Amino acid sequence: MQEILLxxxxxxxxxxxxxxxxxxxxxxxxxxxxxxGNAGATNTFRxxxxxxxxxxxxxxxxxxxxxxxxxxxxxxxxxxxDIRFLxxxxxxxxxxxxxxxxxxxxxxRGGKGVATLFGIVIGISPWTALxxxxxxxxxxxxxxxxxxxxxxAGLAFPFFILVIFNVDNYFYRVFAIIVxxxxxxxxxxxxxxxxxxxxxxxxxxxxxxxxxxxxx
Length: 216
What we know:
Blueprint: H1 2-14, H2 18-27, H3 41-48, H4 50-69, H5 83-101, H6 114-124, H7 126-143, H8 146-164, H9 170-186, H10 188-196, H11 206-215
Helix pairs in contact: 1-4, 1-5, 3-4, 4-5, 4-6, 5-6, 6-7, 7-8, 8-9
């Protein structure tokens, strides 16, 4: 019973629609009416700029991180690094991601859950998170496409779990594969726009791009 209540709490944490609240409170708009129509950090970067995009991204990451840490509220019979403990962390994290995608506080119209998924990985296996974030930052620096950065980091996630770190937990291994598939599924429109050459770039690294233009 306690585990069910914590899973519901994790869903409620994930449902906090940071980008929607920021856009309505500070800009008097609904972020979902602009850009890609998505209530995630990427669309916030595009519509509201890098400062608010970064703020929303950090908040969305913290939602996943906080959700997995709810496992520490369980009785002492669940020991950290125990398989049952890890599985419960994943369940709470997945609940938060579902809350982010289908937020009860925002008419069930949320984001794609990538940042919240990343928060889960930080909370459970920080070294894997560091490796994936390195890929994300590198691709973002080279392309300024948050969507492409998220896709490639997401595809790298099961590779790190299954091959590099060889995590000995069946549930976690399946979770890693599902995450990669989910990211591809939720970014189909972005993939189409990238292939057509009309995907929007986020407003960061602009000074680098200006220098490149001047040097041509």
